[in-house]
Specification:
With 77 residues, the protein is an alpha+beta fold. 29% of the residues lie in helices and 39% in strands. It contains 1 helix and 4 strands, in the order ββββα. A hairpin with a 3-residue loop joins strand 2 and strand 3. It starts with 10 loop residues before the first strand and ends with a helix.
Amino acid sequence: MNRLAQRKTRLIFETEDCVFERSQNRHIIIEARPAHCCLRLKGGRKRFAVGYAEIYQYAIELAEKREARRRKKGGAR
């Protein structure tokens, strides 16, 4: 596995997930950069920079909330 900083080409990909904005469903475009990634909607110009550590922390929070909801439901399987 190579580091993102060592890539010679840009890494940009379109997700299958869509967001409804300006009366259309628009796919999310991710531009991976060494220190962060930029998110934007296909056909849009506005970009949002998000650090990889922030994404990781948010994923942990989501997992903890799901687990708490599952336990609260009574399914402590």
